[in-house]
Design goal:
This protein is α+β, with helices and mostly antiparallel strands. The protein has helices spanning 11-18, 54-71, 94-109, and strands at residues 21-25, 28-34, 42-47, 79-85. It has one domain (4-109): Ribosomal Protein S5, domain 2. The termini are far apart.
Length: 116
């Protein structure tokens, strides 16, 4: 489980993070915002009804929370991440969800290439 200080809990924090970098891979979309380091790394989750019923949504959210908790210590302080589950997340196993999350985070951290 994520420590209380590592959770995004209010609308303003979610909104600010959603305006940051976005990357999608497989069953997840990651919104990432690098902050000033005033707080530790934090994460929030969005799992809509499109993913499935309450039992399925909670299972997906628990898996994502556990995956992020494993990766959180490696993130730089001030990093805010919102992980949005797509309907495909209900069908993914733990390892597949982990691979999707890692790929999306890596893509969101990658510097943007200029179009020329």
């Amino acid at each position: 489980m994520l420590p209380k200080a590592a959770r995004l809990r209010n609308r303003a924090d979610f909104s600010a993070t959603m305006r940051g970098r976005r990357a999608a891979r497989g069953a997840v979309v990651v919104h990432l915002k690098q902050g000033d380091g005033a707080h530790g790394a934090r994460a929030g989750f969005v799992v809509s009804k499109a993913v499935g019923g309450a039992v399925v949504r909670n299972r997906v959210k628990r898996r994502l929370r556990h995956l992020v908790a494993e990766r959180l210590p490696a993130w730089t302080p001030g990093t805010d991440v919102v992980v949005r589950a797509l309907p495909l997340a209900a069908e993914r196993g733990y390892a597949e969800l982990a691979a999707d999350l890692d790929a999306a985070i890596a893509l969101a951290r990658k510097p943007r290439e200029r179009r020329g």
